[in-house]
Amino acid sequence: MAKRPRIAVVGSANIDLTTFTNQFPKPGETIFGQKFDLGFGGKGANQAVAARLCGAEVFMVARVGSDLFGPATIENFKKQGIDPTHVKQVEGLSSGVAPIFVDPNGQNRILVVKGANDALKPADVDAAAETLKSADCIVLQFEIPVETVYYTVEFARKHGIRCIVNPAPAQTVNMGALKDLDYFVPNETEAETITGSPVKNVDDARKCAEKLVGGGIRRVIITLGANGSLLASREGTEHVAPFTVKSVDSTGAGDAFIGSFAVFLGEGVPEQEAVRRANLYAGLSTTGVGTQKSFYDRARFDSEWAARS
């Protein structure tokens, strides 16, 4: 039986407000959407839920607002089996929200209002230090202050804990602060924004990843949506092919990839196979609507993996 990994997610928790529409309004125009869905989200929370559904023991370090969404988010973590001991409400701030607009092809446009996520500081990482030290892997994103991300990366480095950073939403990166980071996992848009190099195809992704590895990061995985993903290290690069699925909503697919990948690695699955499994897990997440609600549990995933691998 595979080892049960212990995953720490230091990151964001939002409420997703998803609107499905055939077109987008012009300035000053009001149009009717097709459907609306409200659910729990935030890149950090999504990655935590994916990791938990894949079988890991998961705990969250996060901040939520003093509004009605705050207690509901904490309760959702409990229902999901995620330890919310280090998820705290911040007085006077709203919880993070993410209005999401999805077109008929399943592509999404997202506007994130960070709210209390911006109140997650290095001191909060210190407050959770004993719990974090027990983790097999720490997962981070850019929906919290970047100073907190860098501080946590250094904490992981100091204590010999595997660390995965998802630079989303993309912003300027201090490569020195990410030196010897275990895994840096952007999508095409994020990779392009961070490096200034266009990522339109697998060859572009390879050049971009090599630039990031050259900057001191140990391994880079660029997720390429329907084109799978590209794994790069100091030893070379490899394109990991996708799986064919019928996609209806791509929201949260990157989070599904990262949460599941952390678990597969923690179980001792070889790196390339862990990426391949995460490709499938992410692809399957696009066959349902929303983020956390569309993620597969381990039994369903294992059945799909057995049938497709």
SSE layout and pairings?
Elements: E1 6-10, E2 14-20, E3 35-41, H1 43-53, E4 57-65, H2 69-80, E5 83-90, E6 96-102, E7 108-110, H3 122-127, H4 129-133, E8 137-141, H5 146-159, E9 162-166, E10 183-184, H6 188-195, H7 202-214, E11 219-223, E12 229-233, E13 236-240, H8 253-266, H9 271-285, H10 298-308
Parallel strand pairs: 1-4, 1-8, 2-6, 4-5, 8-9, 9-10
Antiparallel strand pairs: 2-3, 6-7, 11-12, 12-13
Helix pairs in contact: 1-8, 6-7, 8-9
List keywords for this structure.
309 residues; UDP-N-acetylmuramoyl-L-alanine:D-glutamate ligase; 10 helices
Descriptive report:
- With 309 residues, this protein is of the alpha/beta class.
- The chain has one domain: Ribokinase (UDP-N-acetylmuramoyl-L-alanine:D-glutamate ligase, 3-Layer(aba) Sandwich), CATH 3.40.1190.20.
- 35% of the residues lie in helices and 24% in strands.
- The chain contains ten helices and 13 strands.
- It has a six-stranded parallel beta sheet, with helices on both faces.
- Strand 6 and strand 7 form a beta hairpin.
- The mean pLDDT is 95.
